[in-house]
Specification:
The protein is α/β, with parallel strands linked by helices. Helix 7 links the parallel strand 9 and strand 10. The protein is built from eight helices and ten strands. The protein has one domain: 3-Layer(aba) Sandwich (Rossmann fold).
Length: 261
Amino acid sequence: MEIVIRESHQSAVNLTADIIANALRKRPDVVLGLATGRTMEALYAELARRHREEGLDFSKATTFNLDEYIGLPPEDPNSYRYYMKTHLFDRVNINPDRTHLPDGMAKNIEAECALYEQRIKSAGGIDLQLLGIGRSGHIGFNEPLSALFSRTRPKALAPWTIQQNAPLFPDPSLMPRRAITMGVGTILEAGRCLMLATGDEKAEVVAKSAEGPMTAMLSATALQLHPQCTVIVDEEAGARLTNREYYDWVFENEPEWEPYR
């Protein structure tokens, strides 16, 4: 795992966008794993700007999102399909047929989960998986005690996840209590994992996930197992990291980071 601490929220977003943009330029048919949430809104806005002003091309890319609420149709403003269309898909030149999210309205949820795994496999696997991190340390909707080798499956949402997300609904009581999520094992099979975390409310969980012991109570700690995982944070989200001097030294000295300095 590599940790890069940037001086501001926007510089963390820009570096994350740089890595995704370079992946698209290097391999136009790249398979991207995507995430939702408030942290990603600025990132998708930046990628859309680069498409609009710099010609960043999404036309051959394929995407797979981490998760979707069970019981919400794609046209529901609180569905993650709607989120992705609003914040990215409708703002770039991506082929809608190449954008994939779990079907939260599937009659057979277990079969939908198995089909989603098969679709990822048929696409050749995910090359670059974008991740956020929840305040309880979850990636996707892999809530505490999620198996570290779990696959795409339905998952009951934790009370604190419901409490955090419910205000986004016009009527908080209508927030679904279950979701389909990629498993931790599914995420770990991506060629590269790229986590973006900003704000002081993420500082504690970032430190525990990156520097603490691996535990199913914090599914993000499983990223310590990944051979190519980059965590990008701003100063606020990185405030509780104890090895800051080393992380900065790596960024300033490793050749792979030279184009980004």
